[in-house]
Design a protein that fits this description.
- By secondary structure, this protein is of the alpha+beta class.
- It has three helices and eight strands, in the order αββαββαββββ.
- The protein has a six-stranded antiparallel beta sheet, with helices on one face.
Length: 204
């Protein structure tokens, strides 16, 4: 075939590659709502790994053990109600697990002979899962996130010892970097146990 010989395509330098990778991850991890003021990726809980082309890429941590949860949340026994985070997307959502056991202190009186997890503790457990998202938002000063309100909370089925509570909490918005709203759902064996909207306010 005629024409000019093919020329080798110049490869981008390492700085350009890193900028491309950072841009790619940022575009896939935007917060859910345009009302959210925070839209940058928090790399506090991230790891640097080698890719196939030798480029180091920052991979965001997506699961947390109970020890890692305690590094983020101030709650301790008997009010540490999340055993593990099985999925986490920065600025978007967290999915946590609470293994309900008979030896938890509230079952002594709620109720004798028929133990049922109090609804307020289910809501508190969902809020703690939401705290995993809130405490890692970038460009927000460190502080204590507390309940500012709960809305549209409904209980669909009782939660009893032996159940595995799966809680999914998604960030709806953050305003003035001090107020947040989240949508929470708790399930047992695929059945909805509780759902509602949780409002938070940061206190100094």
């Amino acid at each position: 075939m005629g024409g000019k010989p093919l020329q080798a395509v110049a490869q981008p330098d390492s700085k350009l590659k890193k900028r491309f990778v950072a841009f790619y991850h940022t575009q896939n991890l935007q917060p859910m709502s345009t009302l959210t003021e925070v839209n940058t990726l928090n790399t506090t809980n991230s790891e640097s790994v080698a890719t196939e082309n030798g480029l180091d890429s920052s991979i965001v941590k997506s699961t947390f053990t109970v020890e890692e949860i305690q590094e983020l949340l101030p709650h301790r026994y008997p009010f540490a109600l999340v055993d593990k985070i099985v999925d986490y997307v920065p600025g978007v959502r967290a999915v946590g697990i609470k293994n309900v056991t008979f030896n938890e202190p509230h079952f002594q009186g709620h109720f004798p002979g028929r133990p049922v997890m109090p609804g307020v503790l289910i809501v508190e457990a969902m809020a703690q899962v939401g705290g995993i998202v809130l405490t890692q938002l970038p460009d927000i000063e460190k502080g204590l996130w507390m309940f500012a309100g709960i809305d549209k909370v409904k209980f669909r089925r009782p939660v009893v010892p032996g159940d595995r509570l799966l809680m999914t909490v998604e960030l709806l918005w953050v305003k003035r970097r001090r107020f947040g709203k989240m949508q929470a759902i708790a399930e047992v064996d695929g059945q909805k146990a509780c759902e509602g909207e949780l409002m938070f306010s940061m206190v100094d």
